[in-house]
Task: structure prediction
Amino acid sequence: MANSGNSAASRTRNNSGVKPGVTAKNGQAVHNKILLALPAKECSALLERLEFISLPTHSVLHEADETITFAYFPNEGLASVLNVMSDGKSVEVGLLGTDGFVGTPLVAGYKTSPSRVIMQIAGSAFRITAKELAASIPECPQLTQGMHRFVQELALQSQQVAACNRLHKVEERLARWLLMCQDRIGGDVVPLTQEFLAHMLATRRASVTVAAGILQKAGLITYFRGVVKIQDRSKLEEACCECYGMIVRQTMRWQDEARVR
Result:
């Protein structure tokens, strides 16, 4: 087990605040960080094209190999990027919430994706058609830059998670995954079943049961009827593998580099 870098993790969580006073045309407060980072002119123009929608758990935002019809800027909840095999089995390769957007291939002018994206935790999003997003890109340079930066952050996640799933113990991977969830949803409660966790961690349900038991016995989490509650974040950071800290540190480094420019 490796210390994941508490100071960087704390910065990630402390920077999750919402810029006050930004609302959509329907009066809905904006929490998505890409949208909040836009200058007023771009934000106003884009919000006119966005539709606010609720997204129940397991909502499919786009399916693998099918045309992407919408991009989504999550305003609440948690989305999961899944690689789907020919036999129907899937494994999570990325997580996103208010930090990002769904529909990354659209930024490069592509129309399809090899991945499925679903809502892992119910929430909401601002949705825009692929056609309208394409029209917005040349008009909104800061939006385009923000989306490109998130694509890089998501690629970092995928690379590190691939190594993590191959090299680290299930309880370390579970700790890493719970920390990543908490960073994106903000609360201490993560409503997920063991079956779903098994898909996310690319392992058997029995292995998740054992891993959750180890973390619960150590007083780091409690797990009951499909709900995981983080009891001690600091110790959970100590219990996870090095991958969480590597993702957080590199993301924060990129954000610092972006501010210097």
Observations:
- Residues 164 and 243 are 7 Å apart (CA to CA).
